[in-house]
Design goal:
This protein has 224 residues and is of the alpha/beta class. 42% of the residues lie in helices and 22% in strands. It has two domains: 119 residues, Rossmann fold (3-Layer(aba) Sandwich), CATH 3.40.50; 96 residues, Orthogonal Bundle (Arc Repressor Mutant, subunit A). It is built from eight helices and twelve strands. The strands form three sheets. A five-stranded parallel beta sheet has the order 2-1-3-4-5, sandwiched between helices. α2 runs parallel beside α3. The longest helix is centred in the middle third of the chain and has 17 residues.
Length: 224
């Protein structure tokens, strides 16, 4: 049975979410504080964490940092804060996804399933098929409609970082530091230029991309 750790200081919201998740076959653990959340992650090893940012005492960002010190468990952050800076801070800390309250149960379940799929395939062979694309991470090779596509080292760096995190929102800062180096973080115009080039090479319709998607003001996401 898939185990979900639900961390929120609002008892009614926890009960509502837990009831919905248990009705769909998930085992649900509950925590009201960041300290309790860290203890349960260590003791019970949940398959995914749904975490509110606005916790008393240790806040959600601190919890993400604490978990990421030793665990790759998928983390979906919930927050009443809709500001882009809050989203970027949570994602840069290591969260996998972000939902702003209020949200629909259907959307949360879809994000949960996507996070679990990513976790299940992290150790799989490094070959990804997405529509007309065949991406071999080990061989550093991309084929589109069977033909090899020549990419520059920088283009490949972006493809690799996004594909390894497929389905996950990767922030501008994460991409810049992964590809250009740790001294970068604000040069978002680099990303706009290179992602546009990747779309021309790899998307069937670059003006309506299916795989290399923009999250306005935050980052990019690769979808299968």
């Amino acid at each position: 049975m898939t185990t979900v750790l639900l961390v929120d200081d609002e008892p009614q919201l926890r009960r509502t979410l837990a009831t919905n998740l248990e009705a769909r076959g998930y085992e649900v653990l509950q925590a009201a504080t960041g300290e309790e959340a860290l203890r349960l992650v260590a003791e019970r090893r949940p398959d995914v964490v749904i975490l509110d940012i606005g916790l008393p005492g240790m806040d959600g960002i601190e919890v993400v940092h604490g978990v990421r010190g030793w665990s790759d468990v998928p983390i979906i952050v919930l927050s009443a804060r809709g500001d882009e800076r809050d989203k970027v801070e949570a994602l840069d800390a290591g969260a996998d996804d972000y939902l702003t309250k209020p949200f629909g149960m259907g959307e949360l379940l879809a994000r949960l399933r996507a996070a679990l799929r990513r976790g299940a395939t992290d150790e799989a062979a490094p070959v990804v098929d997405a529509g007309s694309l065949h991406i071999d991470l080990a061989a550093k090779r991309v084929r589109r409609h069977g033909d090899v596509v020549r990419l520059t080292p920088t283009e490949w760096g972006l493809v690799e970082e996004l594909v390894r995190n497929h389905g996950k929102l990767v922030t501008h800062r994460q991409l810049l530091q992964a590809v250009w180096g740790p001294e970068y973080g604000t040069e978002t115009h680099y990303l706009r230029v290179y992602v546009a080039g990747l779309r021309r090479k790899l998307e069937d319709d670059p003006s309506h991309p299916k795989h290399f998607l923009t999250e306005a003001g935050i980052g990019y996401r690769f979808e299968l």
